[in-house]
Amino acid sequence: MKRRHRYRHLPSEQDDNDRWLISYADFITLMFAFFVVMYAISSVNENKYKILSDTLVKTFKTEELTAEPIQVGKEPKQLVSEPAIKTDTKPAKPKSEDLNSKKKMAKIAGQLIKNLKPLVDKQLIKIEHNDRWVKVQINTSILFDTGSAVLENDAFEPLDALAKVLKPLPNIINIEGHTDNLPITTQRFPSNWELSAHRASSVVRRFISRGVKPSNLSAIGYGHHQPISTNRTHKGRRENRRVVIMIMAEKKSHLQLDIE
Fold first, then answer.
1. I need a labelling partner for 189 at 20 to 30 A (CA). Which of 70, 88, 151, 234 fits?
2. Is the whole-model pTM more than 0.90?
């Protein structure tokens, strides 16, 4: 007799369709925790924030600058305010040095006019002055022959009279030679430059022989390049042929001064 095997049929496991609720609940929990943390971080103690804010404002606040001195220690004595600088619109008065220089130049010019009066009256010598120089202009007709740089005998008297005034002076003295524009071409003088320079040198040598200090003297040749009159007439050319003695107010250096 066959034994029948009875099989117990176990109930089949049913599909759980609500498992998503667990994941959803976990997600909601995490979100809740996240927002709680965010709220906690964003929550600031107002009192502490106000204290911090006031401190920062006081630290970085720039106070207005003031010209008044800051008191340190004891109260300082009252300072006397400096008087306001006044703008003087009046022209400046001449300095005492300028006045003295002008007087000295005038004195030298007066002495020269006195010593050379006959030639000044004949207009063979012209004397001018200001506070910077005394200018003695001598026509070469009384000093040199035409085309020559050798002093004539008639030149000795006026030059010696000049030297008598110049000898005690400490001033710088420039002797300038000038010619007209008529060309000269000789073995000794290839141009008017050489002629004017040699004439100035001849006057310098005469002054030195009469005791004028050599270190105060200089010879300058200008040729025909600084005329004082026209070279188109005989009279104008005669005026341009001249020797000029410039007695400078400066005693220690040569200066380029405007003599106009």
1. 234
2. no
